[in-house]
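Worked Example 4.2. Consider the chain below.
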Amino acid sequence: MRCWGADKAGQVADRFRLFHTLGEVLRYTIGRHYHNIAAVQSRRPRNERSREFRAADRACRIYGRIKRLREMTAMRSIAHVSSCPLPRIAQLLGLDRRTVQRSGC
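Applying the procedure from the previous section yields the following structure tokens:
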């Protein structure tokens, strides 16, 4: 499924997929055990929870930025290392072709 001579691009795509899959597994696991997490959270004092929620919200925003940065970096790396056409890059990353075009790769 990789373009010829694009080993580094394949490695970047593999790493991206690994992080993407890890995120999916974490969301699934947290979703399955949400009731346990909620039970523990409800036992804590109110002000402590609000502080943690703000910290968690900030962490989620930062994670979102990091995730978008990794996606863009992976696309740029693939575009520079290989001579794959844009539809192929989009297929490797699991993104829409228009998203790859808009990134300016």
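The mean pLDDT is 75. The chain has one domain: 7-102. Compare this with Example 4.1 before moving on.
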